[in-house]
Amino acid sequence: MAALLLASSLISILLLDSKLTIEELPAEVRTSIDQQAPGASIEKIRWEHPGDSPRYIIEYSLHGVQWHIELAEDGTVLLRERR
Fold first, then answer.
1. Which of 6, 12, 44, 69 has CA atoms 20 to 30 A from the CA of 32?
2. Rounded CA separation 5/8 (Å)
3. pTM of the predicted protein model
4. What Å distances lie between residue 64 and 57, 60, 67, 75, 83, CA to CA?
């Protein structure tokens, strides 16, 4: 039983910070990225699930400026900031 709990915990930890490609994102998230950052160079995409708030975290460059955006699964912008 303890081994099962440990394995389950490790899987949860790995899923908390999963790296993704643009093709793996839900259509709503891809659409939001296209609207928020048309022509951007995507540098990193992660998926996090803190509590009940799953989110996609995208780091990108646009016109030489670094950006960080967090999107809900439905594409809603939760945070957008310049880096």
1. 12
2. 5
3. 0.75
4. 19, 10, 10, 24, 11
